[in-house]
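Forwarding these from the shared drive since the link keeps breaking.
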Amino acid sequence: MSESTQPPVVMPGANAIQPRAALWAITLVAVALSLFQLYSAGIQPLGLFYQRSIHLALVMLLAFLMFPVFGPDRKRGALGWALDAVCFAGALITGGYLVFFLDEIINRAGFWNQTDIIVAMIATVTVLEASRRAVGFGMTIIGLIAIIYALAGPRGELPWLGEWLPGILSHRGYTLDRVAGQLYLGQEGIFGLPLGVAATYIFIFVLFGAFLESTGAGRFFIDMAYAATGRQRGGPAKAAVLASAGMGSISGSAIANVVTTGAFTIPLMKKLGYKPKQAGGIEAAASTGGQIMPPLMGAGAFLIAEYTNTPYLEIVKISILPAIMYFATVYLFVHIIALKQGMQGMPRSELPKMRQVMKDGWHFLLPLGVLVWLLVLNLSPMRVGYYAVITMVAVAVIRYALWYFFVAPGQGQPVTAERTKAVVWSGLTKLVEGLELGARNAVAVSMACAVAGIIVGVVGLTGLGLKFSSMMLAFSGGNLVLALVMVLLASLVLGMGLPVTASYIVLIVLVGPALTNEFGVPLLIAHLVVFWYSQDSNVTPPIALAGFAGAAIAGSKPMETGFQAWKFAKGLYLIPLFMVFNPEIIIGGPVPVVIWNAIIAIFALCAFAASLEGYLFTRMNWLARIAIGAAIFGVFYPSFWTELTGVVVMAAVIGANYLASRREGHPVTS
């Protein structure tokens, strides 16, 4: 049947109208990609370039199928399919050439022949086009700028352009052959570390999250949060915070968190009395926190582990306290707003019961338990992800089989050959859906990592990283706080056009050496700071993507909701500062010092929320708010007596606020 006579189908996730043949092709490629990843993760590990090249080829095929060349709202037509055929060929050449000729390429030891260079050019163009479709123009444009920069210089293909570069950014310039070879055939390029992490650790955990999502784990976490907090003041908002923390363990996107949990929590927040912009902002801030919440932290935990050569489990352990600090801040914001507006909790009759929630969904905790247990045993994260996926599927099958054979007959649903056949078919369909969803969810991050590899390759080739470090040192005048402000601004600008993962990779390559070598920030803390700041674009106008997603659900104005999200997510700015000036909470130290720093940090963040809202137990006057603000700076200063003075001032102001509320007769309970 031709495309014109084929009934169009709206494909979830890509927002594109697709003919049925294209949907079948998407399913086929997606399932093949997921099965390949499972095979290489748990059965037969492959060599570095084999794994990455096959992964990239399949991901690009999927990207070209999912995202039509002229956009999601237009049919491909004859021209579109012709262009896609060229792109399909480019994807197959990109991956297939390395698979079939890897030994010969290695034996040439950098003396590449003309075929190598031609294939490298095809691969680079194909990657940029797949990125344009799956990630957006921003990432592609930055990749193109990086390539043009590499060609600019007296010995490059664009010597005239090198004359326009400022002195600190100038370099010798490189030929097209040299740049193409670096990007495709070198270990710092398209197939570099970012794509390597995406093709191994990230994909398998995204697949695990997809199986949890497709089997109902998202609803389980939301119900559990409601059962725990629903009766408190502002219960739905507090449930949004907890549910987003839970969803953060299975989702790789703040926007995905917003649309998943927000569909339930935002309407209930509005019903309880939160303004639409507040409801959308709270959900956006909480969902952004899901990206810094162990064990997955989006894709960040794996990338940080690889870049710093630190065990993955160690990254998870040191990230728990900062994540708790962040969610404590958002949680207190929610509580204070509920107190200010006199909100009450939801009636018990409208809430799920914790016992019933656990009875219906306890099996979702088993795969998470297996995941944590295997990580503690120091298995490879890739192998851990494989066993977690297998456990998830096995638990789902066993639980349904027990119900089907032992519970259903007692409810008037006897076991028959016809019903058994239907049940088996339904199970296989669910399995394919999980495999397909995992592959689809991984397309954007894999393509972002591939283009990030282009940028990293150019930075390494031209020495831009060292030059950027010199610029950073010059502009900040050697002041660490100013340097961190520059990192924050750079992350905001990059975040306007790049996904969080790509923003982190690009930024750490540029500013990481300066933070560690020039300013003395420990390597691990430098990476965590940059990773946290890279989340900023989700909640900071003018491009607050998570905030805009929350606004769409809440029916509020996008910019107003973005500013609310920005306010609630202030922990993204303060907690990295605290890491830098109190490194013991990350890299360890004497137990009393670590405990003291953790306590005063949480205390300061809670005081900050109260100061910003002008309310805790009752309203605060401007003098009290200014005093708390000054005390917070003292707590963040790396001196025990300054910290102690700040804590005393905050405690005095909060104590006075409590006594004032008692005199006014305000309730102070939850």
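-- next protein --
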Amino acid sequence: MAATIRLSDLAGIVLASGHSAAQGYAADQLGHYIALATGVTLKIIVEDAVIPECCFIVGDHPAIERIAPEIDVASLGDDGFWIRAKDRRVIIAGSKVRGAIYGAYTFLERHLGIKFLAPEVVHVPKGDPKFEIREFSMKEVPAFAYRAITYLEAMDPDFCPTQKINLSPFAEREKGGSYRFSPGKMTHTFYSLVPPDKYFKEHPEYFSLVNGERRQALGQLCLTNPDVVRIASETVIKWFEEEPDIITVGIVQNDWTGYCECENCRKVDRGNPARTLLQFCVLIASVVKDKFPGKFIHTIAYTYTENYPDDWHEQLPDNMIVVVCNMYPYRSNKPIDGDPMNAKYYKNLLGWLKISRHVFVWHYFVDFTHYLAPYPIWKTVAADLKQYRALGVEGVLLQAGIGLGLYQELQELKMWVFHKLLWDPDLDMNVLVHEFLKAYYGKAAPLVHKFIDSLMSIEDRPDVSLHLYVGLEGNHAKKDWVIQCQGWLEQALDAVKDDPATLERVEKVLLGLDYAYLYQPVEYEVLLGKVRPADLERRKQVLARFVVTTEKYKIRSHGEQVPISAFLDRQGFICKEHNVLAIAELAPLVYKMMESMLDKVKETMDEKHYFKENDFVIPALKRGFNPLELVGFMTSKRFAVYEPGVPDNWHRWLDVETTHKLLNPPVPNVRRSQLPALVLGMIKGLPGQKDELDE
């Protein structure tokens, strides 16, 4: 039987005299939570020579080499740790950076059952002061050297170290810090590197030539122009001088197309704009290497530069990082190499790994159109993380929505699960989910678990396909299922009605289902000359609850750059009875506007009727419509859809025949089956339109 070490027998927590602030923080946290859990108070001892016979030793203490010669602290890097309990001493070995902190939190989790569930939510079970630690030894280093999830809450400087996250602009050095980057110098930096406001008037040749004209707005840079290389290099040097602690700056195209088509750029591109971007980055990287050894520049394989240039055979500079974006759909329960829809991305990833020593992955795991709605990508992302580790990907950033006033579906649970999988993809996701739900939702946990199990099972359905702008077309949030899950969570609310903190946590889970119910296509009925939703009473109840919850948690947006006020206005409008003749009279105006937008689509679609979504969204915006809701309407009517045969994630297919039928109904003889959700759901913003149509 293995020997044990009694916690109450330990003399204290020993640090070396040369310990770092982060190692001191690790010792403080270790002592603080041991006292909370067991009542045992351990003093901090700073001593190099005389080490107590029974104690904790934290950090890179010189005595570790003598007491436990098998522990090689240097091999742990900045983030790894080695915990050994033997001969009445518990060693938590780790670097002066983050390793000791990560080791301390791991000890607390695994041996005292303490769980750091969310910012300001720590589950501390009451333990026995006579608690005994069995002798053991464990070494851990992260699967990925760089790790982050972009929830704003995940970047809390107190929460980050508990989750072993090392990419955060808000991390504090004494709490382990972070590989520093500047948010303003991270992505889409071309117009910061060479500002058009400063240079375009006198030097339009610095900017991209598009369709025969140099473009200032919605353009890029002319990457083969030597003056552009010089100015951009000078800007990068200035950035590193202004923020000497940042590790990398971005050389990244703007977030639209419009790349340069000048003769020199076309010669380098040879059909792939990634070539001019790489040539541009290599030149800047050489300048950075000379002036700032140890610093990096990075670029992003994104939209028009995502394709790996297959004839680029030389290795990229050692101080250059390529961040590869997974732009493509997820499929139910398949990793990135297991589905045809990911074939292009997977091929590109392998290509970038061949030519770059440092490859990060920017992996989207959010529905940008519906932050709040159910989005079952658990098994797929878990499988992808294992694949990324096997391929040698160096860093992973999981992209959620970013910004104030956001709350995203099951945010706390996703942080807990995926933070841990970023550290070790081999952990059992089901175990992680169970641990979190039990600790976080208390008496409501069984009912919340029932919902989560049902949600996760959706991934196994072959008719489900998800991507980062999926909406209803993913076939994953059917109305009957939403109603069933709402019932379970309403019971969960009742189970914790006397526990305000847990009640709020369940409210946030139900919020997503209420949103999913409201954004479903609306079925209408006509009664005594009035048109109204067939589920009017239930819809009113769900909307009232949704409004209260969003106000309570200060939620300001439900989709990328879309204010939630617009969604609430439309839902309020839908939850009323309206005069059917007024609707009929208004329908021709709406349809005329729709026809003009679809004419634009027809102009740009190819011979197979595939068109890019922006060809529809941009004219929709100009006409005052909410394009995200219009896309939902188009999908529900099945005349502009995303399907496996489309060229990529940015295209839709237009059913011209169905479009014509829908846009030419008999008016004013409107039947129930012909009442357009478009009219009721998206009427806000039309010129001269009143909310109350009955006036």
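Residues 175-184+226-253+264-442 form one domain. The chain has four domains: 4-141, 175-184+226-253+264-442, 447-574, 581-681.

- D.
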